[in-house]
Structures are given as structure tokens and as C-alpha cells.
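your task:
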Amino acid sequence: MSGVLFYVQHLLGVGHVKRAASIARALVGARVPVTVVLGGERVSHTDFGGADVRYLASARAEDESFKILLDQDNQPIDDAWRDARRRQLLKIAEEIRPDILFIELFPFGRRQFRFELIPLLEAHKGRSKIVCSARDVIVGKPSAKRNDEIVDTLLSYFDSVLVHGVEAVIPLASTFPDSHRIADLLQYTGYVVEQAVATTASDVGVDEVVVSVGGGAVGEDLLRAVVAARPYSVHQNRHWRLIAGESLPAGAYQDIEACCGTGISLERARSDFIYVLRNCALSISLGGYNTVMDVMAAGCANLVVPFSGGVETEQLFRARAFAARGWIHMFDGELENHEEFAKAIDEAMAQGKSVRTPLDMGGAEKTAQLISEML
């Protein structure tokens, strides 16, 4: 046996991978051998800290409904694909023989991957400690039967559920009503935040309005709205830097770039993003877990515009919880109303830098500590 096998499957955004990378780096720092098994498309500017990284055949969601999954050739996955990937995953796990099987999100999400995860859990039940890595907000399930399935899976296979949040801020019960049934499994780690490395410090972004949309898969509307609202802002003469992410479709990227004009630039991604946030005059962003944590860690003036399309409610729930405490500024109006959006931008700028909070943002290190104690 050898350390931790960390399974991560992202389907649309890149937040799951970025959070997993922070945890992997903390595990490596704690001298815990870790193999990260990734089932989604490769994400640039991702540092796993020297962990062994294995890639399964890639799968992604066609859109934010998550109803159709596409393979690496952009074709709907089928039973032959599922069989091949299950064999690939089980072979890796048998080779690693992990002390701890660390599963990101499942069974709270990723139900489409039961075809490989249930066999993986069956193969390692009683052989490995089995741990779920869960973010602070669970996308609610309307079906009591579905929630029963989640609880039954956790009680049947899992030894622990590590919630990467703070119970006093967002208890799991607020988004998963059956959490009392798994209370004995729950441990809160605090929030996972990407730590900046001093040797890579950057002076990019000073006095700029910086707009970011994570991986970019669901960021097109925000980017277009910012370009349209900028002429109505009193800060239109500052430089506005748009960071689109790798997943924004090429056609949309080219169209937005053509609309930018003088004083506004568009780029795909930055390895020094955390420093750009520290330097900026204002951050405008979506409300994903990683981005909100980056904004709070940077302490910059901010405006969070949570994505709430398809079945996704996670960003809106978190943004409301944080905004209610005065930790972030949130815009939940209509992006099509460019004057209203510009007014919100100006108000967020006027309110200045975020107030430093006592929020526990040592989640990666706490996770590594808890995992180490299980070995």
C-alpha cells in the first residue's frame, strides 16, 4: 500500500481541479504520498506539487444542464467507453494499493460515474480508508430517494466526509438536509485557498479593474456585460483586464476581443492570478468556490456576480451567505441592464478593499493533517 489515491472528475468549471491541486500540494508538503487521478480535460496553470498525476480518458459536460457527457472526441459517452474507463481506473487503483481512497464530491455529486466509482469502492472496502472530499455548498437534490441514496452510499463505504468549509458560516445541513444522518462522518476543514509563492510575485494589475470567470465555461455573459457596461462607469479610463479562462469557446473569445477597444484587454489565463488580485483596484468575478476564496485572501475591492444557470445554485448560495456578513459585494441584478451593472461596479469600487475576516482559510493544510492522522 502507498499513501493516498485522490480521484477528481471535473465536468464544466475548473474549480474542482484547482481545489484538489491545493490539497495535493499540502499532502506532498506533509510528506504523504499522493496519486491524483483526473477524469476531466487537462487544466493549464495547475500545480500538484510533485504528486503523481494520472489521467483517465477525458469526459466533460456538454453544457450546464450536465445531462449529456462527451468524451475526448466530443462524442456522447457510451457503454464501451464506460467499460474501458472503469478498467483503466481499477487498474490504477490496484497498482497504487492506497491506504486512503480520497473521492472528490461523490456521492453528493458525480452520480453519472457510479459505473466506475461503485466498483472502485467495492474493491477497496475494508482494504483502504475511504474519504469524501466535499465543498461547502452541495447542489440540492429535490428527490428524497436521491438523498437516501447519498446517505446509504456514505454509510456503506465511507469512513469520513471532509467538508472544505466552516460549519458556523455554511453548515452542510443548509444545503443537504439529511446531514444529521451522517453527522458521525463529518469533519470541517476550513476553506481551501491557493497559497501565493513569493518568488513568483507579479506587479501586473496595479490600479486595474480585473474581471475573471474561472475556467470560462460559463463566463461569456459576464465578460460581454462588462464590456458593455464599462462606458457607463466613472472608472472607464482605468485599464480593464478580462481573464477569460481556457474553456471559453474560441468563437466567443474572438468576438469579445473584437469589442474590447482601447483600455480593455482580454487574455486566457494567468499563472500569477493571485498577485493580480492583490494588485487590482477592483475584482469583478463569478462566485465559484476558488474565486471567492482567492478574492477574500487577496483582500481586494470586489464585486461577485454568481452564476446560477442550469441546475447550479452553489455560487448564488455562497455569495448570499458571504455578502450577508459583509465579506463580499454581490450583484444579482440583470446583466443586460448595463447602466445598473456599471453603477454596482462603481459602488463596489467606492467601498474599497474587503474587511479582513476571521474566516478559517487553512483548509488544505487541515485536510493534509486529517489525512495524515488516518494513515
Notes: Residues 198-351 form a domain with the Rossmann fold fold (CATH 3.40.50.2000). The first strand starts at residue 4 and ends at 8. The CA atoms of residues 66 and 176 lie 20 Å apart. DSSP finds eleven helices and 14 strands in the chain.
